[in-house]
Specification:
The chain is of the alpha+beta class and 216 residues long. It folds into 2 domains: 11-86, 3-Layer(aba) Sandwich (Glutaredoxin), CATH 3.40.30.10; 90-215, Leucine-rich Repeat Variant (Alpha Horseshoe), CATH 1.25.10.10. Helix content is 54%, strand content 8%. The chain has 12 helices and 4 strands. It has helices at residues 22-34, 50-56, 77-86, 90-102, 106-115, 124-127, 134-145, 151-154, 157-163, 169-182, 188-194, 200-215, and strands spanning 11-15, 41-45, 63-66, 69-72. A 4-stranded mixed sheet has the order 2-1-3-4, sandwiched between helices. Helix 10 runs antiparallel to helix 11. The two termini are 28 Å apart. The mean pLDDT is 94.
Length: 216
């Protein structure tokens, strides 16, 4: 996994006059600033600077850019502190993706990956967990598939190979599918091994993926 920065994240907050939740979020961030848990706090009033809101695609307030994460709506002091801590952890990236996918914000999750393609690796967290909701697993798969035959997905070959040996057949099936999408000949041995899998679906997907690799 990618090592995250350990320096305090900066915060950019957009507020609007009459916003019910803005004062609480602003206070929470101010407290974190005093505790040096965030490095810098910039506050912009949308009414005074609508051009700034347009620049960042702000549609509602409070809107917060905290380190790499974009958060909207009410945030308690405890939640803000958690997000600050997660800015420097692998857990935080997975949590952020989970929130976006749970909300159905696949486009936003995809854009988050496009900003730094190495973030694609965090989506494997959901592929590896068959108990995650269908909307999360389907969203993660859709974003991973969008990198078919591309470097960011190909860089995950080792992780996908390991998942193809997972104890859960659903994880093995998804891994086989993504191994085929990688377009890499190095994926063939793992797929060939799955042709003898105990699960019929895994065998079928492994066969289809091998066919896909043959045409890549």
């Amino acid at each position: 996994m990618t090592t995250q920065t350990t320096s305090p994240p900066d915060a950019l907050l957009f507020i609007t006059p009459g916003c019910v939740h803005c004062p609480a979020v602003l206070q929470g961030l101010s407290d974190l600033l005093k505790q040096t848990l965030i490095g810098k706090l910039t506050v912009i009033n949308v009414a005074a600077h609508p051009e700034e809101a347009e620049k960042y695609g702000v549609r509602a307030a409070p809107w917060l850019k905290l380190g790499p994460f974009t958060l909207t709506g009410a945030q308690t002091p405890a939640e803000l502190k958690h997000w600050v801590e997660w800015c420097s952890s692998e857990t935080g990236y997975a949590k952020y993706f989970e929130q976006l996918l749970e909300d159905g914000s696949i486009k936003a999750a995809g854009e988050f990956v496009s900003e730094a393609p190495e973030r694609l690796q965090y989506l494997l967290t959901f592929i590896a967990d068959p108990e995650k909701s269908l909307i999360i697993r389907a969203g993660a798969s859709a974003i991973l598939e969008s990198y078919q035959n591309k470097g960011p997905l190909q860089n995950l070959l080792t992780q996908l190979a390991k998942l193809s040996e997972n104890s859960d057949h659903r994880v093995r099936a998804d891994a086989c599918h993504l191994l085929g999408m990688s377009g890499m000949k190095e994926a063939k041995p793992y797929l060939q091994q799955c042709l003898n899998d105990s699960d019929a679906e895994v065998r079928e997907i492994a066969s289809e993926s091998l066919q896909l690799l043959a045409t890549s």
